[in-house]
Amino acid sequence: MSIESLIHPLIGGVLIGLGAGLFMLSNGRLAGISGIIGELLGRWPARWPQSLAFIAGLPAGLLLWQLLSGKTYEITLTHNALLLIPAGLLVGFGTRLGNGCTSGHGVCGLARLSPRSMLATAIFIAVAVAVVSLKQALS
Amino acid sequence: MKTLLALLSGLLFGLGLAVSGMADPKVVQDFLDIGRIWRGDWNPALALVMIGAVPTTALLYGKAKDKVPPPSREITRRLVLGSALFGLGWGLVGICPGPALENWLADPFALVFLLPMLVGMGLARLVP
Question: If contacts are CB pairs under 8 Å, which of residues 9-28 in chain A contact chain B?
């Protein structure tokens, strides 16, 4: 394991924290991504310009990474639609039902020491670990 | 101004997801696959991201406390069931909502995840 593979996640984490913190300070809102998208899927609230701006910043962040590093961002993704489609439905439905995802419950909720978010985070990590382990055992 | 700062917030957040490797589903899955701890090729990236992100957010939250609504304390069946369903989908492919909004730029096939995710979010609105 290279030192970079440890430093990059830490730096990335600090950047995520700065983004979440700036959103709180400037807009008085939590950077809960599923919540922000979910809100835009309903009747648009008065604060839609800020919601849309935050959401647009995410893909722009990847483009900025490419610009700064001079590299193309590469990912390893399954191209099995029979896996991607149900997974997408579950992630979308589950995060709205549970009122948060890795950003809202995981980052913001834990930072605010919210017991609700601690429970939610423990549940989705435990279930995801179980699913990956099961997939591993079956393959 | 508020909108510009919201864009900057999203940009920092999105850059962080890219820098940390969280936009790559493989990095996330290699973290969730804890069997790798014993096989010696576990990827701790997600834990390191949280170590960087949570204290930074907490520090700034301390300064923004009077601006942000206080956290709800209610533990509901919705919270538990929703989080479990999210974990199920997340474990299947290793993508959560933030990375889903940017990784389609790296591989457009990721839209096959993103669009159903938006449908799923819409469907959740129908639950009373």
Answer: 9-28
